[in-house]
Amino acid sequence: MRLEILIAGRGGQGILLLGHVLGKAIAEHTDLHVLGSETYAAETRGGDSRVDLVVADREEEADFIKVVRADIALFMHQLQLDAYKDLVGDGAVVFLDKSNVTEIPRRSWRIYAEPYTDIAEREIGTSRVANMVALGHLVGVTSIVPPEAVESVIRETVAREWVDLNIRAFRYFLRLSPHRQTEE
Amino acid sequence: MRYEYVTGNIAVAEASMTAGLKFYAGYPITPSSDIFEYLARELPKRGGHVVQFEDEIASINAAIGASWTCAKSMTATSGPGFSLMLEALSLAVITETPLVVVYVMRTGPSTGVPTRSGQYDVLQATYGFHGGLVIPVLAPSTPQEAYDLTIRAFNVSEELRTPAILLSDAVVAHTYGKVAIRERGEVEVVDRAKPSVPPESYRPYDPLDGIAPPMACFGEGYNVLVESLTHDEKGYYAPRTDAQRRLMWRLYRKVVESAERLFDYSAAYLDDCEFALVSYGPTALSARVAAKLLREEGYRACLVKLRTLFPLYEKGVRELLRGVGKVFVVENNVGLYFRELRGVLRDKEVISVPLIDLDVPPPQEIAGVVKEWL
After folding, report:
1. How many domains is chain B built from?
2. Residue B263, CA distances (Å) to B250, B258, B318, B320 in order
3. Using the beta-carbon criterion (under 8 Å), do B3 and A59 form an inter-chain contact?
4. What does the pLDDT look like over A154-163, one tens digit per residue?
5. Fold type of domain A2-179
6. Looking at the complex, does the CB of residue B115 fall below 8 Å from at least one CB of chain A?
7. What is the pTM of this model?
8. Which residue from A133, B233, B294, B334 has the fewest beta carbons nearer than 10 Å?
9. At which of B159, B181, B203 does a domain end?
């Protein structure tokens, strides 16, 4: 098994934290191997933020640091969807933040589109945890890592006063059946 | 043993502690600085010392001095800092001082793009210091390899009594990976040989029957001479051709004749290979994907990733690539290590694929260049 995962959005959306939590959960709580790279712009807000993960059950198959053809992708913003859509392979599972994505390209992807940012704001009380709402959705649908593993990494990684909010956000889609959404 | 999700730089720092690091001296420089930061926090907890000096010259000299107290020593830097360290590196070579220098390459020359990557310094790592000898250079391409090769660099430096270079770069430094971190006792750790003779009959530069002379350290009751002048086995200045010849050949041979034992590589698709992509460092990851893409198109491509760059085990490389037609040397510079391999593979067509990129050259670009030559 070998999977390429692409996580992308704008600076300030928590892309790097999302990618780090996912990579760390996979590396430290499953038998899978993983290589991950982070790309971010010099600006604190608004630039390109991107995490590439290559995951495999054999160490030598976790063989590259960049996504060539993503099997799983999560786009938190239209700009990055437009910029990186050609890195996403046919048949890929794609998650979109509908709060920031309006034009969905016609591709043979399995698309899950939900307004992560609006959900975070409405249900959790702050849009700052939209990344964890999205991560919960991705983990629920793909089952790439046990949710408890992700929660344990959140507890280790996130500043203490933010842990509960992040975990509530992460659980949003896991509490609902993650497959309830219609595929677009 | 535990698994952690860490960057190449943190893997280096963790590995150095497992290998027995007791003294780190450094001057911060991107992209090596987090090795320093991490050790500043962690090494003192394990009984070691971390000191920031006024520059790289002082740092490497302090590390050399510490090694002579039998503290395993390390420094880490990047191109501009390594250039400053070269004079002292030569001192470490002639005094046969075990020392690990982590060279985290960045885009150069000079200040270049300090936060980005490249492999421009692959030859400087071993040919940069004056004196015309060779020191071991090990090149990781992933955080796990950074971990494993750092321990190996310590072991080699202890066994051969030589400075050894771990040649990383900005990509490896900042790439995260699942790394198996081992404790002392879970991995082979080599310590330098100590004299077995009484102090009065000890000759500090006499290798006896071994590869490197047993090393007495300061404070152990032996007369210790740290001599940078050409010296005889006692460590006395010997400005004579016969002494110079003896010393030079011994220092040269102890490294070069260890090439077979130090040879480290991995290969993919080698048993069904018409032409080989040879690469090292993170560029080798890209080259592996390129080989895969080429094979999907029906080309019989394979990959050989070299982890030991110096000393180059010439016979081993020739045997490895015996059945291969063309050899493509893929690297992120103007084609430097290509020169080494071309000299070794004289009966083959060896083609340089020098692809300069601030990160790693994309696999599609490598595959495209290779196809032009087929």
Report:
1. 2
2. 20, 9, 12, 11
3. no
4. 999 999 999 9
5. Pyruvate-ferredoxin Oxidoreductase; domain 3 (3.40.920)
6. no
7. 0.96
8. B334
9. B181
